[in-house]
Amino acid sequence: MVNAARKNLMSRRNHKERAQPLHRRKLGLLEKHKDYVHRARDYKSKKDRIKTLREKAAFRNKDEFYWGMVKGKTKDGVAIADRGNEALSIDVVKLLKTQDIGYIKVQIAQDEKKILRLRAELEVSAPVAGPSSEWTAASELAEVEKLAEMGVVIRPEQAKRKGKGKAPAQGHVVFADGREEYLGWLAPPETKKKRKGKAPVAVVEEDEDDEEDRTEEARVSRSQHSLELCILTQQEHRMELLGNLSALLGRVRLLRQAEARLETTKGLMGKGGARKVRQAGFVEDENAPEDRNGDRKKFVGKQWKWKLERRK
């Protein structure tokens, strides 16, 4: 035992596997004995399977018949069997279609409420147009609705930021040492560029009237700058509301199309003869936008007509 433990504690040489010679590198890795065993077993199993198939083909009965062959099908030599799935009855499918239509109607009602709220907010927050201006909030909403009917969705330039936090303020924070430096930073950017480009000027004593005029100019410039920032923020908020309104209008349009298709499918599944009046395709429409060929056309779906029946 002592000798065996001492033998295990002694350092041994690590026997490495022999590599492929350089002049035979193109043949890949050098095959070891375990690799040969796997390859030989695979080769022999394939050989035995081919032998068994040949024996079955040689001794098969040409008059062999099973009743399963009557309904059985094969595709590329593979048998296709029935999974046992039962087709739903027409009444069950009609019930499911009715539930789908009800869900779509609920979604349309919710989206229409959101659209009404957005329209009211846009009308309230609309900027006041001048007497000579043809632009009004109503005309803007009408333009958005017209684009939504054509399938065009307005997307504002600034994308929404993911997460619950607020968007970071643009620019950088500057810590001023005093009130004068703070007032200097509040001045419009044109004044700053002019200040940076000028050479240092010697300080000259001025009268109190000149100082008051300079203070008044700085106050006016600050008020103008804050007014411009307020207008810019209002415009960005309004563009975001218009984008949301456009997306909701497009969503309602698609939902109404889905509702019409489900109603048609449900009607075709019911009683009564129906015939196709019009195939799906493009028809002329004066309200549609012009295409590259100058034609005004829009795509319409299939149109069906049901036979008149007297119902109790």
UniProtKB/TrEMBL annotation:
Keyword tags: Nucleus, rRNA processing
Coiled coil stretches, renumbered: none
Disordered: annotated span: 194-220
Gene Ontology annotations for the cellular component aspect, listed alphabetically: small-subunit processome
Bias type Acidic residues, positions: 204-215
Locations listed in the record: Nucleus, Nucleolus
GO biological process, one term: rRNA processing
Pfam family of the protein (one): Utp11
Its biological purpose: Involved in nucleolar processing of pre-18S ribosomal RNA.
Similarity comment text for this entry: Belongs to the UTP11 family.
PANTHER family: U3 SMALL NUCLEOLAR RNA-ASSOCIATED PROTEIN 11, U3 SMALL NUCLEOLAR RNA-ASSOCIATED PROTEIN 11-RELATED
Listed name of the protein: U3 small nucleolar RNA-associated protein 11
The organism of origin for this protein: Vanrija humicola (Yeast)
Lineage: Eukaryota, Fungi, Dikarya, Basidiomycota, Agaricomycotina
